[in-house]
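Why do we care about 3D structure at all? Because function follows from shape, and shape follows, mostly, from sequence. That is the central idea of this module. The next example makes it concrete: a single protein chain, its amino acid sequence, and then its structure expressed as tokens.
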Amino acid sequence: MDTLLEAFSLLLLLSLVLGLLRVWKGPGFADRMLAAQLLGTTGVAMLVLLADPLGLAALRDVALVLALLAVLAVLAFVARVWDPDEQVPDGSENPSDTRTEAAPAQPQRPAGTVGRRRG
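And the structure:
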């Protein structure tokens, strides 16, 4: 059992390292937010995994709180920062953009107003 626990811990540690690399490199805000979510989910998994061997039941409670905070972080990101019209660094349109040519374009916002709500 200890070998299996160590293997899972190393796998989660590798996931943390890869997530940190994605947060650092980007390329966009959405990619960085998803990587941050990966870090949060991996942290929750590590806390749950270590709760029994360490004999600390409070780690499960901490993991639950972190999972709830992760949901709030995503909601805040979507509401304030995420711009669906963001272009990828090579200048092409966002591949997840499914609007047709007939759809009316949204007016462009002035620089520095990303995420601000209009009145």
